[in-house]
Design goal:
- The structure holds three protein chains of three kinds.
- Chain A has 14 helices and two strands.
- Chain A is mostly helical.
- Chain A has two domains: about 40 residues; about 250 residues, MetI-like fold (Orthogonal Bundle).
- In chain A, strands 1-2 form a two-stranded antiparallel ribbon.
- In chain A, helix 5 runs antiparallel to helix 11 and helix 8 runs antiparallel to helix 11.
- The relative contact order of chain A is 0.14.
- By secondary structure, chain B is an alpha/beta fold.
- Helix content of chain B is about 35%, strand content about 25%.
- Chain B contains eleven helices and ten strands.
- By secondary structure, chain C is mainly α.
- Chain C folds into two domains: about 40 residues; about 230 residues, MetI-like (MetI-like fold, Orthogonal Bundle), CATH 1.10.3720.10.
- The chains are: A mainly alpha, B alpha/beta, C mainly alpha.
- Chains in contact: A-B, A-C, B-C.
- At the A-C interface, helix 2, helix 5, helix 6, helix 7 and helix 8 of A face helix 1, helix 3, helix 4, helix 5 and helix 6 of C.
- Bound molecules: adenosine-5'-diphosphate and magnesium ion (MG).
- The site of magnesium ion has 2 residues of chain B, from helix 2.
């Protein structure tokens, strides 16, 4: 048995061009390396652009950074004529409007998300979500337009009543000019609500049935199940959506510029006009005379960039870990 | 030439040649000669010391419980496993008298065609599906393509069913037709070997019968290696059958022999349904 | 028995809270409808032929249109697509077909971050990158700004749609002797093409409404802007400038421009969804 014959083909093994030398044309056409390199260039250009972006913001803000250091963020004088730049009114306005906007948007957004994920029939829910996502596609300058010509006239009718009864609270007193932190916050709230709804709805829907059943079996009401089992389970994704919205609110420019009043002052009253970082850049950038002024504005851009990147990164991280959690669980 | 004991092939760890019983017939030469083949997915060894010969222009079937490495072996024959990152081959495979790994993989796969378990027509028209492989070769002229498409569809016994809708989407035909389309697609480039990985597992009995019929036709011009879960199918279509277990080739024999009088106990257990 | 549990107070909470969630949804929807309705009413009533065919009339005079802004926006979008689409496509192909592990993660994460950069900061970047060296505002600068803003979405949506192409199709191509790149270009991309086009159209719609980055790149122009190296007007910037102006005539123009811009965006987004639906239908027979 050990010396069995290994037959060779009667018709000699005809390798059908397998052995033929490859032409350069075939090598190029079949070559994955070229395609790999070209697409790699596309992918890496993202890193190059981001790198350039950071470098430019850093280099073109150097005069201001050197002149004012960290005081830039906390000094309240913004005086282009005398070359003194302190950004506190803008920082303050940005923080106040964003936080107020989230305070309005979170309950409404989360409430709608719960309704759409838990109560509405899936078909209706999908249709409504489609409509709500349209709200996210409306350009911010159009929100500004609506803010100026629809929201502010409405507020002129509403605010006096609020002030009549609650005027003794510092955040409501003072003359109302229409343009204010408050108006800006409402516009911002409308702009970020679709984000909160659409992301939170997704994560709520993806909560496994087992999480609900345990509590249902105990005779809990629908609301109990939603609030104590479903929402806590989805909290990471919801937090992610909130951070994304915060980043978006902090960097929002046009709509805010159009309704905040653009006055570089710090007021306790939400009814007073103010200013935000993004708004001052939009307003003064093309009029900036002198390098220090320009660098101060670009440093504001740098600040805005760093802060929004932090919140974006946090949001992505939350969503990443949440995905990991789903795979494991 | 003296007849030899096929059953030795699987046990003796040396390479032998599988000859036909009928002594008059021309001896088939070895299409593939596999020696001491190990295969790894990362650290997981899926094939262990496989030795075997696949004779030319015969049908060889691989059977065995799932996860035993049949697909893996089939996919090393046309080097599809190379497309999975982290895999590694040890040992040797020869195509005819040449090292399988000495060819450019893209050319090799035109000589060694493959049909997968799940029908996977491209989201293109029926015609474009069959023409796909032909168009990859710039030396095939456009006029020839239409002829070759028709010819392959006929060989796959599909022509009559689709000749009026050649330019409709291939996703619109039934599962059995889709699988025959995939066979036609593979045949269009006139491969020497056709690898089929459980081609009928997703199909109804009638489609299965059609595919088995067409295998008998193709067999005259192609070496066929088929993986199947269905013992009856192996008995019907195969000349030789290899039984795998846990990455090892337990027994290789003529189909009749394996099903009537297997040499190994494990083979006996498997074909009588006593495990897996 | 069952009537006693859960207690009445919890049942009331249940009903009240569930009703409140419905109320929230209603509130959001009514805001949406108010915005769209108001824009439609104000915009349509301010629209006329001159709006599309004339350039702005001198301050204080009535009449005139924003033909220059419409042309400007189209030119900006064409340039932006010419920059953003190829890079996005290539990057998307790289991420889905070639990149692995560390480099894929870095690029993906950076892309998502770039997508979150406030548009006004992107305007500053392109100002320092293009406007400062060239010493003047231009269509080119505006197009670069919008183009860079298009990359992240073009890239990620391309990647997602390519990834969704099943491995069996790729293997089908490889098994016929196609190389990896041939498989990508003849099977994977055609199979995903409807999705990719949809993603790019939505991307264009998204940057079409961007205003802040154009303020200090494309700037604005009261007249038509010849070529690519002059400042140019654009619809979003016109809306902004007219809205904050003190003239009623211009307010009307702002409404009309807002209406035209939003209609354009909605039409693009509806068409692209139709394309996607058609693609799904084609590939499922
Ligand atoms: N892509 C893969 N990565 C890692 N392990 C795999 C992969 N494909 C198959 N395996 C493993 O290799 C072994 C053999 O698989 P396979 O050849 O598909 O078996 P069969 O086709 O006989 O059912 C199995 O244990 C399986 O888990
Ligand atoms: Mg298998």
């Amino acid at each position: 048995m050990s010396n069995a014959v290994l037959a060779t083909p009667e018709v000699p093994f005809e390798s059908r061009g397998l052995d033929k030398k490859q032409t350069w044309w075939e090598r190029l056409r079949k070559g994955d390396e070229v395609v790999h390199l070209i697409t790699l260039a596309g992918g890496w250009s993202i890193l190059v652009i981001t790198g350039l972006l950071v470098q430019h913001l850093w280099v073109y803000s150097r005069l201001s950074r050197h002149a004012f250091g960290w005081h830039f963020l906390v000094d309240s004088t913004w005086d282009p004529v005398n070359g003194v730049f302190g950004a506190w009114p803008f920082v303050y306005g940005t923080v106040v409007t964003s936080l107020l906007a989230l305070t309005i948007a979170i309950p409404i957004g989360l409430g709608s998300a719960i309704f759409l994920a838990e109560l509405a029939p899936r078909k209706l829910s999908n249709a409504l979500t489609f409509l709500i996502e349209l709200l996210a596609a409306v350009p911010s300058v159009i929100y500004g337009l609506i803010g100026i010509f629809l929201l502010i006239p409405v507020l002129f009718n509403v605010v006096p009543y609020v002030q009549k009864y609650f005027g003794w609270i510092p955040i409501f007193n003072g003359t109302f000019y229409g343009v204010s932190y408050f108006s800006a916050s409402i516009v911002l709230a409308i702009m970020v609500v679709p984000f909160i709804i659409s992301i939170s709805r997704e994560v709520l829907i993806s909560v496994p049935v087992s999480q609900r059943e345990a509590m249902m079996a105990l005779g809990a009401t629908k609301w109990d199940v939603t609030w104590r089992a479903v929402v806590p389970y989805a909290r990471q994704g919801i937090m992610g959506s909130i951070f994304l919205s915060l980043a978006r609110a902090l960097g929002e420019t046009m709509a805010v510029t159009m309704v905040i009043g653009n006055v570089a002052q710090v007021s306790t009253s939400l009814m007073a006009p103010g200013y935000t970082i993004a708004a001052v850049i939009a307003n003064e950038f093309t009029e900036a005379t002198g390098d220090l002024y320009l660098h101060a504005l670009i440093e504001l851009g740098l600040v805005l960039f760093v802060v929004t990147m932090i919140f974006n990164a946090l949001a992505r991280l939350l969503m990443l870990t949440m995905k990991g959690h789903e795979v494991v669980g | 030439m003296k007849p030899f004991d096929l059953s030795q092939l699987s046990r003796a760890h040396e390479v032998r040649f599988a000859a036909d019983e009928s002594t008059d017939e021309k001896l088939p030469w070895p299409q593939f000669t596999v020696a001491a083949l190990n295969f790894f997915y990362g650290t997981h060894q899926a094939l262990k010391g496989i030795n075997l010969i696949v004779p030319n222009k015969r049908v060889m079937a691989f059977i065995g419980p799932s996860g035993c490495g049949k697909t893996t072996l089939l996919r090393t024959f046309n080097r599809m496993n190379e497309t999975i990152p982290g895999t590694r081959v040890e040992g040797s495979i020869r195509l005819g008298d040449k090292d399988l790994f000495s060819f450019p993989a893209t050319r090799l796969r035109r000589v060694v065609g493959m049909v997968f378990q799940k029908p996977s027509p491209f989201p293109k028209s029926i015609f474009d599906n069959v023409a796909y492989g032909l168009r990859l070769d710039p030396s095939i002229r456009r006029r020839e393509i239409a002829d070759k498409v028709e010819q392959s569809l006929r060989r796959a016994a599909l022509w009559d069913e689709v000749k009026d809708k050649l330019h409709q989407s291939a996703n619109g035909i039934s599962g059995g037709q889709q699988q025959r389309l995939c066979i036609a697609r593979a045949l269009a480039v006139e491969p020497e070997v056709l690898l089929l990985d459980e081609p009928c597992s997703a199909l109804d009995p009638i489609s299965t019968a059609k595919i088995e019929d067409l295998l008998f036709e193709i067999k005259n011009s192609c070496t066929i290696v088929i993986v199947t879960h269905n013992m009856l199918q192996a008995a019907r279509v195969a000349d030789y059958v290899g039984f795998f277990l846990n990455g090892e080739l337990i027994e290789l024999n003529r189909a009749k022999q394996i099903f009537q009088n297997p040499e190994m106990q494990q083979t006996q257990d498997y074909i009588t349904g006593r495990f897996g | 028995m069952s009537a006693s549990y859960p207690p009445l107070s919890r049942k009331i909470t249940n009903v009240v809270m569930l009703a409140l969630t419905g109320f929230c949804t209603l509130l959001v929807l009514s805001v949406l409808l108010t915005i769209l309705g108001y824009l439609l009413w104000k915009g349509a009533s301010s629209l006329n032929i001159a709006f599309f065919t004339k350039i702005p009339a001198p301050v204080g005079q009535s009449g005139g249109g924003v033909e220059n802004a419409i042309v400007g926006t189209l030119k900006l979008l064409a340039l932006a697509s010419a920059i953003g689409v190829p890079i996005g496509l290539l990057g998307g192909i790289y991420l889905s077909e070639f990149a692995g592990g560390w480099s894929a993660f870095t690029i993906r994460y950076t892309t998502d971050l770039l997508n979150g950069v406030p548009s006004v900061v992107m305007g500053i970047f392109v100002y320092t990158l293009v406007v400062l060296p060239m010493h003047h505002f231009s269509t080119l600068a505006g197009g670069v700004a919008l183009g860079i803003m298009m990359i992240p979405i073009a890239l990620r949506s391309t990647e997602d749609f390519l990834r969704a192409v099943p491995r069996s199709l790729r293997e089908g191509g490889l098994a016929l002797g196609a190389s990896k790149s041939e498989t990508i270009f003849t099977i994977v991309i055609p199979a995903a093409i409807y999705g990719i086009i949809t993603g790019i159209m939505l991307d264009i719609a998204r940057v079409a409404g961007e205003t802040a980055p154009l303020l200090f790149t494309a700037f604005g122009n009261l007249y038509n802007s010849p070529g690519w190296l002059q400042p140019t007007s654009s619809l979003p910037v016109v809306i902004y400038n007219y809205a904050i102006s003190p003239y009623d005539v211009w307010h009307k123009q702002a409404w009309a421009a807002g209406f035209v811009l939003l209609s354009g965006l909605l039409v693009i987004s509806i068409i692209s969804r139709l394309i996607l639906a058609r693609g799904k239908k084609l590939s499922h027979g």
